[in-house]
Write a structure and sequence with these properties.
Helix content is 76%, strand content 8%. A two-stranded antiparallel sheet has the order 1-2. This is LapA family protein.
Length: 118
């Protein structure tokens, strides 16, 4: 299975290299359209190779997707943390009740020791 993953990653890498070599032409990216940039006064532009724009767009899209999914799953993580706290509290209460039962003599001491070990 590991070799299949490496082969898949190598194929993706080869495709990215071929796309980069085929799209080496320079393109100019501007922050705003010219009429709006003149009106606002923000006339920023940058010249990059086309493959940089393509790969940068893919990376930015992945990052936005990861952040969106992380924010969307917040309720599930919070629910899991609440359940984990509840389990911890219940385990503490159980141990406290077991100690009380042993101290009051309601439970055999041998059975109490066996329950504490498990």
């Amino acid at each position: 299975m590991r070799y299949i993953r490496y082969a898949f990653l190598a194929a993706i890498g080869a495709v990215l290299i071929v796309v980069a070599l085929a799209n080496r032409g320079a393109v100019t990216l501007t922050l705003l359209p010219e009429p709006l940039a003149d009106l606002v006064g923000l006339n920023h532009s940058i010249t990059l190779p086309l493959f940089g724009v393509i790969l940068g767009g893919i990376v930015v899209g992945l990052l936005i997707g990861f952040v969106w999914e992380w924010l969307r799953e917040h309720k599930h993580r919070a629910n899991a943390a609440a359940k984990q706290r509840q389990v911890h509290d219940l385990e503490r209460k159980l141990k406290r009740e077991q100690r009380k039962a042993v101290e009051s003599g309601q439970q055999d001491e041998v059975l109490a020791l066996l329950e504490q070990k498990s």
